[in-house]
Amino acid sequence: MNNTFTFSDIFKSSFLANTTNFSVIDSLIAIATAFAVGLFIYAVYKKTFSGVIYSHTFSVSLIVMTMATALIIIGVSSNVLLSLGMVGALSIVRFRTPIKDPMDIVYIFWAIASGILCGAGFIPLVIIGAILIGLVLLFFINRLTVENPFLLIIRYNDASIENSLEHIVSKQSTKHSVKSKSATPGNDLELIYEIRVKKNDTQFMQTITSMEGVKSAMMLSYDGNFTA
Question: SS3 for 183-203, per residue?
């Protein structure tokens, strides 16, 4: 039994084998497709953005996220050990950036899924899926109007006007509910309504502030998160 090693045996490693099996053309096609799909996701996000403060860095990160995911899948697709090591390495990553809009999570998941499909070589599937998802987002976000709720915060010092306040709010809103009621020393009261106004008409705020006993009235856009 010969246990001797030659100089060439040292370089007969899995690294060289993987380098030999590596296809530059296929990798470039996958990364280029990931870039094109990421650019399409970027355009759809910019077109459907309905907020006030647009984050250009987040939209650009969607392109990079798609390409980076495709790059990872290309690297781990031919090596089981590398894939297990990559899973272990990525499991320790913690993303601290808060996601306030649920639609942002949709775009992040879309970018990651597209990158996975591009890296795995499912080019027709990722293109068809991107077109269909883009059309759905463009239709439902730009064509369908949704009434945003508001928080109406009223501060007053006369409890006898609560029935009058309820009458005004119910008359001027399509739907309303009391979120909280608090009292502070000095007979100061605070009443918070969640309301949906008729055609964004807020003229009734002047009627409320002109009532005797009302100290202030404020209306805030409500995104569903409420802290008492």
Answer: EECCCEEEEEEEEEEHHHCCC
153 close to 218: Cβ distance less than 8 angstroms: yes
Extents of the domains making up the chain: 14-142, 150-221
**66, 114, 117, 209, 225 from 127: Cα distances, Å:** 13, 9, 10, 56, 36
15 against 123, higher pLDDT = 123
d(CA 164, CA 211): 9
Alpha helical stretches, state H, 121-161: 123-142
| pLDDT tens, position by position, 75-119 | 777 665 565 556 555 555 555 666 667 788 889 999 999 998 998
Q: How far apart are CA 140 and CA 135, in angstroms?
A: 9
Share of the chain above pLDDT 90, in %: 20
Q: Which CATH class is domain 150-221?
A: alpha beta
Q: Which two tokens stand for residue 80?
A: 């089981």
Residue in this structure with the two tokens 């998802």, named with its chain if needed: 133
